[in-house]
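Q: Hi! First time doing this. I have a protein sequence and I read that you can turn it into a structure. Is that right? Here it is:
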Amino acid sequence: DNSTFTVNINSISENKCKIIFTNQSKRIDNHLNIFDLGIKVDENSKGFGYGLYWAKLLEFNYNVINQSIENMDENFSVQHKQINSASADIGYQEFSLNNLIIERE
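A: Yes, that's right. Below is the predicted 3D structure, encoded as structure tokens:
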């Protein structure tokens, strides 16, 4: 389809940022946790059915690796929020990567 995909990057501190990805898609039922293993939003999809479980594995491993960093006051997290549109079938999916460490020169 021809939907718009936007990316916003906000600086949180000297070496941390928040990245937000937003795209238009079919609305996702509120009872679904898209980060659970085996979740398929569309049962007819040709996808593998892993949902976004991999994103929570990334989150966990990123935080384990970065435990050694001093002053790690807030962990990295991946979050999802659906923003409703005027259409009953369409929603905007917002994914945020919070407290992402960025090395700057």
